[in-house]
């Protein structure tokens, strides 16, 4: 290898025992909600304090989950992945890819037992903020055209 990030990636098999609060981590990703650009994989977004994953200590934020109980997570929607976690039973075997990743979204929101649209909400707010900034800039530009410096007018 030439020292690329791929050389730092490794795989690990982890078995977690579901606790009272589930497996104790949030997930992001899926074909419908990509967390990593051009990658529809499922990633660990947050490890919940004192949850099963935190107590075990091997699963880390940013890990890519490749399979649950032998079932690959390739080409699944986010909600389908959540359902696999929910129905996985008490002892859950995970195949995980460890290593550095580049994020293009938030690191919270989607729990192993919850489905949410925080990434979509985050995107919606970003687009709305850009629209407001563009509108304010356009209005300021038009005012300058109508009332050049030194002219009188309401500002």
Present the secondary structure layout:
Elements: E1 10-17, E2 25-29, E3 42-47, H1 52-56, E4 64-68, E5 71-72, H2 78-86, E6 91-98, H3 118-146
Antiparallel strand pairs: 1-6, 2-3, 3-4, 4-5, 4-6
Describe the structure.
This protein has 155 residues and is an alpha+beta fold. The protein folds into 2 domains: 5-115, Pdz3 Domain (Roll); 117-155, no CATH class. 28% of the residues lie in helices and 22% in strands. Strands 1, 2, 3, 4, 5 and 6 form a 6-stranded antiparallel β-sheet that branches. The radius of gyration is 22 Å and the shape is elongated. Residues 13-100 form the PDZ domain. The chain crosses the membrane at residues 122-141. It is found in: Mitochondrion outer membrane. It holds the Pfam family PDZ.
Task: Give a short summary of the structure.
The chain has 155 residues and is of the alpha+beta class.
């Amino acid at each position: 290898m030439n020292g690329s990030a791929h050389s730092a990636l490794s795989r690990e098999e982890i078995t977690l025992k579901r606790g009272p609060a589930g497996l104790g981590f949030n997930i992001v990703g899926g074909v419908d909600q990509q967390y990593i650009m051009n990658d529809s994989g499922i990633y660990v977004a947050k490890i919940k304090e004192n949850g099963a994953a935190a107590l075990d200590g091997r699963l880390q934020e940013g890990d890519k989950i490749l399979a649950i109980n032998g079932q690959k997570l390739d080409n699944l929607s986010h909600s389908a992945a959540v359902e696999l976690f929910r129905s996985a039973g008490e002892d859950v075997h995970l195949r995980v890819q460890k290593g550095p990743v580049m994020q293009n979204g938030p690191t919270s929101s989607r729990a192993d037992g919850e489905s949410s649209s925080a990434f979509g909400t985050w995107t919606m707010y970003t687009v709305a903020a850009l629209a407001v900034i563009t509108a304010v800039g356009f209005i300021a530009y038009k005012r300058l055209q109508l009332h050049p410096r030194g002219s009188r007018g309401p500002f």
